[in-house]
Design brief:
The protein has 341 residues and is of the alpha/beta class. The chain has 8 helices and 19 strands. It folds into 2 domains: 198 residues, FAD/NAD(P)-binding domain, CATH 3.50.50; 127 residues, FAD/NAD(P)-binding domain (3-Layer(bba) Sandwich), CATH 3.50.50.60. The strands form 5 sheets. Strands 1, 2, 5, 6, 7, 8 and 19 form a 7-stranded mixed β-sheet that branches. A 5-stranded parallel β-sheet has the order 10-17-11-12-13. Strands 14-15-16 form a 3-stranded antiparallel β-sheet. Helix 1 runs parallel beside helix 2, helix 1 packs across helix 8 and helix 5 runs parallel beside helix 6. Bound molecules: NADP nicotinamide-adenine-dinucleotide phosphate. The site of NADP nicotinamide-adenine-dinucleotide phosphate has 19 residues, from helix 5.
């Protein structure tokens, strides 16, 4: 068991967690930030961030995170490795069991655990993840100089990965399961207009070929003119199958919120596992969750906007709400004490 009862634990060290940490530390709440499995969150996997206010020339994702951490530490936030595996949010203080084997008790909790990259369910993906199959072009793109690579997905992530990979790969082919991109207009245009990016519409990745020794060597693709070929094949519809030689596969098919430890705790989750924050008595947004003293910030509660700047905003909301909550329990503890003397 970790020593004293903490005032405020912030789970997650991406933009949302760091923003909450800066606000909470400045309010003298002595926050403890649990860095999670992906310290720094998704921005550490991004190259340039061009739309974060105050950086007219853009800023590196990693740099933005490092600066945020320094800022939080300057005001007294502390950081520790570990992920929450289980949470008992019924009693007070809350009890958090960490992946490190430790247990931490805390009066308040900000959940800023973000969302993790999804996999597509292709044959062989488990064996080849990290061996030519990747969910992060900015991390692994440089290993694919001169390769022909596939990018799976039709959203902004897939477009960003494809554009980045043109720096290294010989050819980049985006494989999308229907014939319309989900990506924003500007990102879609950049990718569609790029001479080194090709598109395979109405196509899905069925199998990745290769081994951990050789890396990725090929892929089997299935396609159907009406899209969603895997679903069609499962329904017994004929689909076209083709095997291509390639040296790398990148997944850009979205994310799943990291809320497994909240199931059954009273924190309300939507059908996809995202936290549903509460509104106040006037119907306005808050960072509160279904459990008093637990607050949500960033992508873990946001399947729609998912921007660094909105995560920073909800991080500050969570810290401000946590500050109010901690003040209110202190006041009621004082009143109880006065009533008993
Ligand atoms: P997303 O918008 O949810 O797109 C996921 C894409 O993957 C969709 O095209 C989806 O196809 C496809 N997909 C999902 N599961 C699949 C599967 N099993 N097999 C094949 N394809 C599959 O996710 P995202 O691209 O990560 O973007 C998330 C949010 O972050 C968005 O709001 C986006 O604007 C933002 N973002 C912004 C930037 C930027 O501005 N630089 C960069 C990255 C992300 P369908 O279209 O058929 O559903």
């Amino acid at each position: 068991m970790h020593g004293d009862v903490q005032n405020l634990v912030i789970a997650g060290s991406g933009v949302a967690g760091l923003s909450a940490a800066v606000y909470a530390a400045r309010a003298d709440l002595d926050p403890l930030v649990l860095e999670g499995d992906e310290p720094g969150g998704q921005l550490t996997l991004t190259t340039d961030v061009e739309n974060f206010l105050g950086f007219p020339e853009g800023v590196g994702g990693m740099e933005l995170i490092q600066r945020g951490k320094q800022q939080a530490e300057r005001f007294g936030a502390t950081f520790e490795h570990g992920r929450i595996d289980a949470a008992d949010l019924e009693g007070r203080p809350f009890e958090l069991s960490l992946s490190t084997g430790e247990t931490i008790r805390t009066r308040a909790l900000v959940v800023a655990t973000g969302a993790s990259a999804r996999w597509v369910g292709a044959e062989n993906e488990e064996a080849l993840m990290g061996y030519g199959l990747s969910t992060c072009a900015t991390c692994d793109g440089a290993f694919h100089r001169g390769d022909d690579v596939l990018v799976i997905g039709g959203g902004d992530s897939a477009m960003e990965e494809a554009l980045f990979l043109t720096r290294f790969a010989d050819s980049v082919t985006v494989v999308h399961r229907r014939e319309e991109l989900r990506a924003s207009e500007i990102m879609a245009e950049r990718a569609l207009d790029h001479e080194d990016i090709e598109f395979r519409w109405n196509t899905e990745l069925q199998t990745i070929h290769g081994s951990q020794e050789e890396g990725v060597t090929g892929a089997t693709l299935v396609s159907h003119p009406d899209g969603y070929p895997k679903e069609k094949a499962a329904d017994g519809v004929d689909v076209e199958t083709e095997t291509v030689d390639i040296g790398g596969v990148f997944y850009g098919v979205g994310h799943t919120p990291n809320t497994g430890f909240l199931e059954g705790t009273g924190v309300e989750l939507d059908a996809d596992g995202y936290i549903l924050p509460e509104t106040d008595e006037n119907g306005r947004p808050t960072a509160e969750t279904g459990v008093d003293g637990v607050f949500a910030a960033g992508d873990v509660a946001d399947p729609n906007y998912r921007q660094a700047i909105t995560s920073a905003g909800t991080g500050s909301m969570a810290a401000l709400d946590a500050e109010d909550y901690l003040e209110s329990i202190e006041e009621s503890a004082e009143q109880t004490l006065q009533a008993t003397v």
